[in-house]
Write a structure and sequence with these properties.
about 90 residues, alpha/beta, three-stranded mixed beta sheet, 1 helix, 8 strands
Length: about 90
C-alpha cells in the first residue's frame, strides 16, 4: 500500500518528468473537402473525397501531421490526380 509520505516524495519527480514529455497531438478524422488541419496528429479519411473549387482538398497548417487515407480515394486537385490509401 502506498503511503501519503511516499506519494508526497514521488509527486515532484512525476511532475518534473511530465514537463519533459513530448507535446500531445490531436487525432482526428477528415470527411469533407476542403479541410484545414491546424494541429499535429494522425488524421484519417472516413470516406472517398473529391476536391472542388480551387482543387485543394486538405490544407496542412501544422507540424507533425500524418494523413491515413484508410483505403479511401481522394481525387481532384491540379491535373486531376487521384490517390488511394492502403
Amino acid at each position: 500500500m502506498i503511503t501519503k509520505t511516499a506519494l508526497a516524495l514521488a509527486a515532484p519527480l512525476l511532475l518534473n518528468f511530465a514537463a519533459i514529455l513530448p507535446v500531445a497531438y490531436a487525432d482526428g478524422t477528415i470527411s469533407s473537402c476542403p479541410t484545414t488541419i491546424t494541429s499535429g496528429g494522425t488524421w484519417t479519411l472516413t470516406k472517398d473525397l473529391t476536391a472542388t473549387g480551387n482543387g485543394t482538398c486538405i490544407r496542412v497548417a501544422a507540424s507533425n501531421v500524418a494523413i491515413n487515407l484508410n483505403n479511401h480515394l481522394m481525387t481532384g486537385g491540379e491535373g486531376g490526380r487521384s490517390y488511394r490509401g492502403r
